Amino acid sequence: MIEIRKGIRLRGKNEDWRVINVSQNRVTVVDLTKASLNISQLLYSNIIKSIKSNDFYIFDENVIDLNNINFSKEAKEKFEKRKKAMNMMEQIFGPDYLEIKTRSSSRIINKIINECGMSAPTFWRVLGNYLKSGKKDYSLYDKSYFSKSQRRGSGGGRKLENGDSAFHRNEEDNTRMRKWMNKYLTATSKEYTLEYCYIKLQDEYRDSNGNLGEPGTYPSMRQFSYFINTYATPEQLEAKKTSMLEMRNNKRLLKGDVNEGVYGPMDLVEIDAHEVDVSLVSNNDYHLVVGRPIIYYMIDRETRMIVGFTASFDNNAVIAMNRVYECLIDPKSELLMRHPNAPKYAIPYGILPERVMTDNGSDFVSKEARRCARALGINFCFSPAGVASLKPIVERSFGTFEKMIDPMMHKAGLIKKRHDSDHHKKAVLTIDQFRIMAEDFVYFHNTTICEGIPYTKDI
Question: Could you tell me where the Basic and acidic residues compositional bias lies (predicted)?
Answer without folding.
Answer: 158-169
